[in-house]
Amino acid sequence: MAVTREPLDDFRIRQLRARDMLRGDLDGPQLERHVEEGVLTTRLDQAADWARGNSLFPLTFGLACCAIEFMTIVSARVDVARFGFEALRASPRQADLLILSGRVSIKMAPIVRRIYDQMLEPKWTIAMGACASSMGVFNNYAIVPADKFMPVDVHVPGCPPRPEALMHGILKLRAMIQGHPDQGWRARYGAAGTEEVVGPERAVDAVNVFGAGDTAGA
Amino acid sequence: MPDATGLELLAQDLRDADADAVLDTLHFRDRATLIVNPARVRPTLEWLKARGYGFLASLHGVDYYPDEPRLGVLYDLLDMDSVDRLTVKARVPTDQPELESVVPVWRAADVQEREVYDMFGVVFEGHPDLRRILMPEDYEGYPQRRDFPMGGEPVLFTYNEGQVPRWYE
C-alpha cells in the first residue's frame, strides 16, 4: 500500500494528526509516519558531547588579574549560566575545565600541573590572557607559558581579556567539544591518561563516616 | 628628613661613637643617606635605633653595576616621634656579599632580608632562616643582579612553531 505523502509542514495539520493519534484514530502507515517524525535519533557519543559541551564545570582557580575578569563571567552582564557553565567547582576532582587566569611562575607551574592531573577525564584547559599563553609582559626568568607544562585547548588573548573574550573562548571550546572533540592537540601533547590516582599508601580514611554495618547513626 | 646640616651632625655623632662606622654622607633631593661601613652595619643601626629611628620602613637591595662595590643594601628608617626619615646604605662586593643580619634588632627584617638574599645574593650572617623566598629552592643565580640574563623565550605562534621542532616534548 502506497503511503500518501501529504505536506506536513503546516503546524495545524500536525496538531490535528496528534489529536487523531491520541484518540486512537491513527493507525497503519499513517501512525508509523507520525512516530517517525516525532522521534529524534542520534548517536550516543554525539549526545554525550552535546551534554558535555553544555555543562562544563570550571574549576574555581585564579592566578592573577585575569581572575578578576574570570569572576565577571558569572555576573549578570556576561552570564555564563546561560550556557550551563556557572557551576564553579572548588575541587579539581569535580571540575572538567581549568581556566589559567593569570601568569604562572616557575614555582607555581608544578602545582598547576598537579591540579590538572587531579582532574578527571574528560578535561579541558583554557589559557586566559597573554601571560598564560606566551608570558606577555612578564617574558623573563620567573614566568613560564602554560603549554610548556600542560596541554591547552583554547588560548584567549588579551591583557587581560574582557569577559566577553573569555566567553567567546568558552563558546569556542564548547563548539570544539561538540563538533571536533580534540582537533588532534590532546593526542599530540600526550594529554590522555594524566589523571593522578592516589594509591592505597596515600589514601586517607574518610573522617566522620560510619563503618560498614554500623547503624548507630541511621 | 634631616637637612644637610642635620645629616652631617648625625654622622659626626656616629663617628664619635664609632670611628669607622660612617664612610660618607649623601643628601640628594631632600633624602638623607648615610653610607656606612658594611662591617659595622648592625652596631650602627642599633645606635640609630637608640637615637630614635625606631622603625625599619624598608630593607631592599640595589645592584649598582658597573660601579664597585656593586651591591647595595638600603635600610629606610623612620623616627616616628619627629617624623624623620633616614636611609642607611651599605655597599658590598659580589665576591664577598656578606652583611650582618638585623633580624635581632627588627623582626620585620626577616622576610626582607630573605628577599634581598633571593634576588641579589647578599648573605645575612646571623639570620635565623636564610632561604630563598620567591624563587624555587633549587634555583641557580640571583635574578635581580644586572648581569643576570633577562630570561624569557621567543613567543610561540602558529607561524613559527615549526622553527622549534617538537618543543612540546
Descriptive overview:
The complex is a heterodimer of chains A (218) and B (169). Chain A has helices at 11-23, 29-38, 44-53, 66-72, 109-118, 129-134, 163-178, 185-189; strands at residues 97-101, 124-128, 154-156. With 218 residues, chain A is mostly helical. A three-stranded parallel sheet of chain A has the order 1-2-3. In chain B, the strands form two sheets. In chain B, strands 1-2-5-4-3 form a five-stranded mixed sheet. Chain B is elongated, with a radius of gyration of 20 Å. The termini of chain B are far apart.
- What is the averaged pLDDT score of chain B? 88
Structural classification of chain B: alpha/beta
Could you give the count of β-strands of chain B? Answer: 7
Oligomer: heterodimer
**Most extensive chain-chain interface:** A-B, 14 and 15 residues
For the biggest sheet of chain A, the summary is: 3 strands, parallel
Strand order of the largest sheet of chain A: 1-2-3
The helix/strand class of chain A is mainly alpha
Poorly predicted runs of chain A are: none
Q: Uncertain spans of chain B, ≥5 residues at pLDDT below 50? A: none
Radius of gyration of chain A: 25 Å
Q: Order of strands in the sheet with the most strands of chain B?
A: 1-2-5-4-3
Radius of gyration of chain B: 20 Å
How far apart the termini of chain B lie comes to 57 Å
* Topology pattern of chain A, helix = H, strand = E: HHHHEHEHEHH
